[in-house]
Amino acid sequence: MRVMVIGSGGREHALVDALLRSASVSSVLAVPGNAGIAASSTPQKPVRCLDYALEPQALVELARQESVDFTVVGPEAPLVAGVVDAFETAGEPIFGPTRAAARLEGSKRWSKSFMARHGIPTARFAAFGDEAEALAYLENHPLPIVVKDSGLAAGKGVTLAASLEEARAAVRAIFTQPQPEVVIEEFMRGMEVTVLAFCDGERAALMPASQDHKTAYDGDVGPMTGGMGVICPFPLEADTLERVQREIVLPTLAGMRAEGHPYRGVLYAGLMLTDEGPKVVEFNARFGDPEAEAVLPLLEGDLLEVLRACAAGRLDPQTVRFAAQASAVVIMAAPGYPGSYPRGIPLELPELPGGVRIFHAGTALEGGKLVSAGGRVLAVQATGETLPAALEAAYAAVDRVGFEGAHWRRDIGGRLPHLRRL
Fold first, then answer.
1. Mean pLDDT of 218-243
2. What is the 3-state secondary structure (H, E, C) of the chain?
3. What is the pLDDT of residue 155?
4. CATH code of the domain occupying 327-408
C-alpha cells in the first residue's frame, strides 16, 4: 500500500520509520516531511517528501493524484482544520479524529466542559473570553495556579504561576492574540505521565505509559517547550493503568459517541497521578511529540494494520503488543530554544549502534549538507533492556552528534531516583 504521512517533525519521522517496518507498505509520501524522512528511502520501499499546502481539500486532491491508499495525520493543526472530514467525504481512507472529535485538543474550554459533563476526573477550572473577568477571578484563587491558552499552542501555552503577578501576565499575554480564550485551573500535585491509546470509536488499546520533560532546563525549570525528552515505559502500576482505562479513556470514548462524534485515532491523555488517583491534565488528539519517538520503536507487529483497524472501527486491542523493553529520547535543540534561535547550523550525525535511532525533528538539506531548520532539531532515541541502559545509550549517542551550540537536558528520567544521572 502507498501511504501518505502528513507532518514534518520527529513524530512523523517515527511514524514513517514504524510504517516502513510494515509488510503491507510499499512506499511512503511525506507531506512536507524533513531531511531525515527523505533519507529513509530505499529501493525496496521508496520515501518521497513533498512540500505542499496542508489545506484539507488540497490534501485530498494530492492523495488522489498520488494514488495514495491510506493517509496518516501527524500534527494537530490539520486535524482541527477538518482534514479527516474532507477525506471521509471524498471516500479516501485516513487515520485521525474528525474536526468535532479533535476539539478535545483544539479547545481546552470545550475539552474541560466535556470532562465535566461525563464525570472524567480532572482539575477544577474556569474559562473566560473576557480579560477583565479572568483577571478578577485570579484575585481570589489560591496559588499556585495554572493558566492555559484554550487554543492550539504547540504544547507551550501553559503557565504554572507561583505568584499573582505571574498569573496576571500569562492572562494578559493570551489576550493579545486573535480570538483569545483562557482556562484557569487549580494546581494538581503529583507525578505527570502520558498514556496514549489507539482508538476505534468504541475500543481502545493502551500504549506503554511515558513521561515527557517539558521545561527547557535541568531540574524542571525554565520556559515550557514542545518536549525535551521522554522515558518509556514509565513505571505505572497495573491497577493504576487499569483505572486510566476504566475511568478516563473508555468514558471519553463513550462520551464522544453519545455526543455524536465517535473518536477514532490516537487519544493522548496527559495525566497527573494525584493522591485521589489519575486525573486528566489535558487531552491531545494525536500522537505526542516527542512521546511518539519513544513509544513507536517498542511497537511489535504492523502499525499500518493497527491504524487501518482504528479508522474502520474494528480494532482488536488484544492484537496490539509492545516489546518488554525500555526506550529513552533526548531532544537536541537549537541554542536559544524555545525563544529565538538560529537556523542553518551544520549537523554531523555519527554511525549508530543497534538499538539507537536519530529522528529528525527540524532539519533540512542546504547544498547537499544537513543543517538545522527548527527549534527542536533531533530526537535521539535508544532502546534497552532497562531504562538506565536505554538512557545511557541515548546520551552516548548525543555526545557524538556534531551540532555546535546544541542544547539538551541532562536529567531525562531524573524524576525517578534510580534514573538520576547528576
1. 95
2. CEEEEEECCHHHHHHHHHHCCCCCCCEEEEEECCHHHHCCCCCCCCEEECCCCCCHHHHHHHHHHCCCCEEEECCHHHHHCCHHHHHHHHCCCEECCCCCCCHHHHCHHHHHHHHHHCCCCECCEEEECCHHHHHHHHCCCCCCEEEEECCCCCCCCEEEECCHHHHHHHHHHHCCCCCCCEEEEECCCCEEEEEEEEEECCCEEECCCEEECCEEECCCEEEECCCCEEEECCCCCHHHHHHHHHHHHHHHHHHHHHCCCCCEEEEEEEEEEECCEEEEEEEECCCCCCHHHHHHHHEECCHHHHHHHHHHCCCCHHHCEECCCEEEEEEEECCCCCCCCCCCCEEECCCCCCCEEEEECCEEEECCEEEECCCEEEEEEEEECCHHHHHHHHHHHHCCCEECCCECCCCCCCCCHHHCCC
3. 57
4. 3.90.600.10
CATH topology of domain 124-186: Dna Ligase; domain 1 (3.30.1490)
Map out the domains of the chain as residue ranges.
Answer: 2-100, 124-186, 191-322, 327-408
* Band (151; pLDDT cuts 50, 70, 90): confident
CATH dotted code for 2-100: 3.40.50.20
> What is the CATH code for 191-322?
3.30.470.20
Band of the pLDDT at 397, cuts 50, 70, 90?
A: very high
Is residue 322 pLDDT above 70, yes or no? yes
